[in-house]
């Protein structure tokens, strides 16, 4: 992984950000409690991961030509606020580290007022996802190094971790 100080200090020059991923919550995604079901938070975050892959050079043609893709090997999701049917959600993706064969990144989901709206700077986060993924050669069935151009794109996007990243689930005493 790209090195960071223990305090996860931001670099002097902020990394360029990935585009926000946008989605509208569909009626079939609503659970018996009247809000977004936990499985569909994962679906939206999965689509945001796909958008990140496209933006960093691991799109459909890359996967078809190379036989390689990202495989999630660990994730941690926090469900912080209810998301109602019809809500417009945006997901901000941050790359936290890019190693030779792995990527560490987060997603933050926000509910916004309209499809093309940006979340306010002080907007409440509805859910977060932190992931570790390996670059896998699907035919060989093992992790392999990223091509230099893909690794370079990921590395150029590395930014400081949000305060919530890296935390584990709390115990109930």
Describe the structure.
By secondary structure, the chain is an alpha+beta fold. The chain is 20% helix and 29% strand. The chain is built from three helices and six strands; from the N terminus they run βααβββββα. Strands 1, 2, 3, 4, 5 and 6 form a six-stranded antiparallel β-sheet that branches. Strand 3 and strand 4 form a beta hairpin. The protein is globular, with a radius of gyration of 17 Å. The N and C termini lie far apart (34 Å). Residues 1-13 have low confidence and may be disordered.
Low-confidence region ranges: 1-13
The helix-strand sequence is EHHEEEEEH
Anisotropy-based shape: globular
Overall mean confidence score, pLDDT = 91
Our count of helices gives: 3
Number of strands: 6
Q: Any idea what the radius of gyration is?
A: 17 Å
> What class do helices, strands and sheet pairing give?
alpha+beta
């Amino acid at each position: 992984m790209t090195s960071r100080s223990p305090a996860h200090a931001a670099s002097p020059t902020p990394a360029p950000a990935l585009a926000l991923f946008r989605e509208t919550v569909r009626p079939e995604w609503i659970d018996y409690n009247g809000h977004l079901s936990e499985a569909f938070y994962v679906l939206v975050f999965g689509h945001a991961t796909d958008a990140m892959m496209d933006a960093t050079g691991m799109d459909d043609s890359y996967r078809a030509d190379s036989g390689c893709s990202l495989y999630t090997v660990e994730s941690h999701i926090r469900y912080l606020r209810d998301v109602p049917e019809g809500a417009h959600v945006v997901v901000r993706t941050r790359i936290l580290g890019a190693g030779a064969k792995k990527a560490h990144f987060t997603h933050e989901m926000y509910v916004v007022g309209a499809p093309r709206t940006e979340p306010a700077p002080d907007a409440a986060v509805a859910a977060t996802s932190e992931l570790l993924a390996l670059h896998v050669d699907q035919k060989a069935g093992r992790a392999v190094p990223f091509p230099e151009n893909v690794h370079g794109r990921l590395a150029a996007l590395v930014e400081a971790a949000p305060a919530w990243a890296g935390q584990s689930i709390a115990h109930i005493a």
